[in-house]
Amino acid sequence: MLDQEMREPLFDYLDENFGKIRILEEKVIQGSRADVLGVLDGYFVGFEIKSDQDTYERLKTQVKDYDRFCDFCYIVVGASHRKHVAEHVPEHWGILVVTEDGVEMDRGADDNPNAGLEHQITLMWKRELFRLLELNNCPKYTNMSRKFIGEKLLLKVDHALLKKQMTELIFERDYTVFDQQPTISEKIEKKKRVVRVKKAIAGERKRAQTTHYVGKRRKPGTRKKK
Question: Distances in Å between the alpha carbon of 183 and those of 126, 168, 225?
Fold first, then answer.
């Protein structure tokens, strides 16, 4: 079974068994890309998919990265991996097997002891960090970086409350805000137009400051008779 063939039954399973959940696909976490990141009320769940055609070559690194960001972790495999997959993930990881008949849980996930809110807060958009500051009566830090704002929130806000607020904001996240945003190529073209306009204006100013002689010109090397 291929990766794409596994996703639809997996999503159906999550909807039926995990209650209110928002699914984020292909989310960058540290040095890996999480296949599926599930956002629930107050915690994050990671799902790494290994199809029947996949190997475990990158899994060791992926496990470390999932463990930094996810409160619970699952590996989702095709039936061909069922026999040996437990040898490749920590004991706190759950195991889901996707077959032609649906999704089966071979092992439930335990609390991940390695998850850190300092990593999870990097999943937030900057506008969401500003909202977190507002919710917790913190200074606005308008011109500061996402990293700076995240560190201040971790320092000033109870972590259980902060995580709940974070997941609530991700549930409300609206990706259509980017529909009206210019693309990278449009931004580059706009910058080029601005440069061209500035050069044209500078040229006009330079020509306006030049004194033009009007009248009969003398030949070079001659002097005007007194």
Answer: 19, 28, 68
- In single-letter form, the type of residue at position 98 comes to V
- What integer is the mean pLDDT of 50-65? 94
- Report the residue count for the chain: 226
End-to-end CA distance of the chain: 103
Bridge-based pairing state of the strands 32-40 and 94-99: unpaired
One-letter amino acid identity for 153? L
Tokens of 173: 């996240």
**Cα distance between residue 46 and residue 37, in whole Å:** 5
Provide the token pair at 187: 């931004």
d(CA 72, CA 96): 13
Count CB atoms within 10 A of the CB of residue 213: 6
Give the DSSP per-residue string, 125-184. -HHHHHHHHHHTT----TTS-HHHHHHHHHHHS-HHHHHHHHHHHHHH--GGGGTTSPPH
pLDDT, one tens digit per residue, over 153-195 is 999 999 999 999 999 999 999 888 655 555 556 566 667 777 7
pLDDT tens, residue by residue, 193-204: 777 767 777 766
What's the CA gap between 135 and 164, in Å, rounded? Answer: 12
Q: Which residues contact 134 (CB under 8 A, 6 or more apart)?
A: 140
